[in-house]
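Are you able to produce any protein sequence you like plus the matching backbone structure tokens because I've never seen that pairing?
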Amino acid sequence: QVQLVESGGGLVQAGGSLRLSCAVSGGTFSSYNMGWFRQAPGKEREFVARINWSGSVTYYAESVKDRFTISRDNAKNTVYLQMNSLEPEDTAVYYCAAKAPSGDFYLWGQGTQVTVSS
């Protein structure tokens, strides 16, 4: 079956950077649109960014626009989230997800913790 495995989370000071990776196996990665979501303690999961199957179209939540960059490498079956200028408010568990070109995200990773200290 399809598996999504995130990595790259950790503890960073405010203003710092992290790059998250999500490796996908068991499916046709290049056919999926990919996304990143996050869930902070006591809050609902929220959308962060998404990228289409070819990498030509991206979309970001307003709260991360101009600070985060989503990208993908179809040869490596991996999607990335480069996070710069991190803020304590970015502290959350970050999840990657996959979907067909239409419809909702339906494949999810297990999440990776990002903690930003002030």
Observations:
- DSSP finds no helices and eleven strands in the chain.
- The chain has a mean pLDDT of 96.
- Residues 23 and 78 are 4 Å apart (CA to CA).
